[in-house]
Design a protein that fits this description.
Elements (H helix, E strand, L loop, with lengths): L19 E4 L32 E4 L9 H16 L3 E4 L7 H10 L4 E4 L5 H10 L4 E6 L10 E5 L2 H15 L4 E6 L4 H17 L4 E6 L6 H13 L4 E5 L4 H10 L5 E6 L10 E7 L2 H12 L5 E4 L1 E2 L2 E4 L8 H15 L13
Parallel strand pairs: 2-3, 2-4, 4-5, 5-6, 6-12, 7-8, 7-9, 9-10, 10-11, 13-14
Antiparallel strand pairs: 1-3, 11-14
Helix pairs in contact: 1-8, 4-5, 4-9, 6-7
C-alpha cells in the first residue's frame, strides 16, 4: 500500500502525472493518475510479497511516460514485480538534490532496495549508501567506482561499446564525410560515448570529420533542434543523439532538411516519428540487470557490478535508409566487440 506523496508535481501532460505512484505485486502497467495514487488490482491480485521480503523503490529523473529512459525503468520495475512477486514503488521527476530525503522516506516505509535510475544520482546515492549500510542501493555508471560501498550494486551500462558501433555505422553511412554527436548534460558517460565514436572513426571512418556538441538538457527539444540545425548547416549528414525527449528536436531538424540526413537514437526506437530519417536505435533493456541484481541480493550478495553488453540488455534495431550490405558489416563489428577482439577504450576526459 502506498503511504506517502511527494511535495512537488512535474506536469508533462496536463492533468496526467503526479510526482510519485506505487503498485502492489499484482498491478497492471497503468501510469499514475493525477489524484492520490492508489494500488490498482490485477485479476485475483492479492499482495503476494512474503512478510519481511525485499521491497524495491526506484527513483526516476523524469516522467515515466517519456517513451524513453524513464519509461524503460518503469517497464523494468513491472517486470521485476511480476517475476519475483515483490512490492515495488517509484518516484518520478526526482531532483538529485532531493534524493537523500526521498530515500529516507522510502526506507522508513519499509523499502530495503533503492534503485537510482540515472548517473546524475550517482554521487548522492553513493553517499546515502555509505550512511545506511543496512540498505541495498543500486546505481548506474560506466567503469569502476573507487571505494565502492559493500551495499551498492552498479549497473554498468557500457555506453562506450554501443557508441563505438554507432560511430563506425555513422562513418560508413555518411555521404558528406561529416558526422555529429548531440549530448545533453556534460556528464562522464557522455564524454565516454563521444570518445568511443572518435575511436570508431579512426578505425573505420577514413577521412570522416566528427563534431560533438552538448545542448545542456536531455529533454529540451528546442535546444536540440537548434544544435542539430547548426550541424546540418555545416554539412553533417549523420547525427547521433544521446538525448531523451531532446532527440525529437534532432529528428525534426533532419525532417526539415532538403536532402539526406540520418539520425541515430538511443534507449528506444524512434523510427516511427521520422521513418525516412532514422538510421537505427541503440536499445536498452533494464529488466535484465535489475532482475539479476535482485536475485543476487536475495541469495545474500550485498553488492557488486552487473555489466550490460551488446547482446545482454543492449541491442540495435535493424538499419534503415542505407545499403542493406552495411547491416552485415555492422554485425561483424558487433561480433568483434562481443568477442573482445575489438577493444573499445573507456575515456571520460571532458571535451572543451
Amino acid at each position: 500500500m502506498f503511504r506517502m506523496t511527494c511535495s512537488a508535481l512535474f506536469l508533462f501532460v496536463a492533468a496526467l502525472l503526479t510526482a510519485c505512484a506505487a503498485f502492489s505485486s499484482s498491478t497492471a502497467p497503468v501510469p499514475p493518475s493525477p489524484a492520490m495514487p492508489t494500488t490498482p488490482p490485477l485479476p485475483g491480485g492479492e499482495n503476494s510479497a512474503p512478510p519481511g521480503g525485499l521491497r524495491l523503490a526506484a527513483f526516476f529523473p523524469w516522467v515515466i511516460v517519456d517513451g524513453d529512459y524513464n519509461n524503460l525503468g518503469y517497464v523494468a520495475l513491472l517486470a521485476l514485480q511480476r517475476q519475483f512477486q515483490t512490492d515495488v514503488t517509484y518516484l518520478q521527476s526526482v531532483d538529485p538534490a532531493d534524493l537523500h530525503v526521498l530515500m529516507d522516506a522510502m526506507a522508513a516505509d519499509g523499502y530495503t532496495v533503492l534503485w537510482a535510475h540515472g548517473s546524475q544520482f550517482l554521487a548522492a546515492a553513493l553517499d546515502y549508501a555509505r550512511q545506511n549500510p543496512e540498505l541495498y542501493v543500486i546505481v548506474e555508471n560506466e567503469g569502476d567506482i573507487p571505494d565502492l560501498p559493500p551495499n551498492v550494486w552498479v549497473i554498468d551500462r557500457n555506453f562506450h561499446e554501443g557508441f563505438y558501433v554507432l560511430g563506425a555505422l555513422a562513418a560508413r553511412a555518411s555521404q558528406t564525410g561529416k558526422i555529429g554527436y548531440l549530448g545533453g548534460i556534460r556528464l562522464p558517460f557522455s564524454y565516454i560515448e563521444a570518445h568511443a565514436i572518435e575511436q570508431a572513426v579512426a578505425d573505420f571512418g577514413g577521412e570522416t570529420e566528427f563534431q560533438a556538441v552538448w545542448t545542456g538538457d536531455l529533454n529540451d527539444a528546442d535546444a536540440a533542434r537548434r544544435a542539430a540545425d547548426r550541424l546540418i548547416a555545416a554539412d553533417v549528414d549523420v547525427l547521433l543523439g544521446s538525448l531523451n525527449q531532446g532527440v525529437f528536436g534532432v529528428l525534426e531538424a533532419a525532417r526539415a532538411k532538403e536532402g539526406r540526413v540520418l539520425v541515430i537514437s538511443k534507449y528506444s526506437d524512434k523510427s516511427s516519428y521520422a521513418p525516412e530519417q532514422s538510421l537505427t536505435s541503440l536499445l536498452y533493456d533494464f529488466s535484465i540487470p535489475l532482475a539479476a541484481i535482485f536475485q543476487r541480493i536475495e541469495s545474500g550478495e550485498t553488492g557488486g557490478v552487473y555489466r550490460m553488453a551488446l547482446g545482454n540488455g543492449i541491442s540495435l534495431t535493424p538499419l534503415h535508409n542505407v545499403d542493406p550490405a552495411l547491416q552485415a558489416e555492422i554485425e561483424a563489428i558487433i561480433a568483434g566487440v562481443q568477442s573482445g577482439e575489438v577493444k573499445v577504450r573507456q575515456n571520460s576526459t571532458p571535451y572543451p
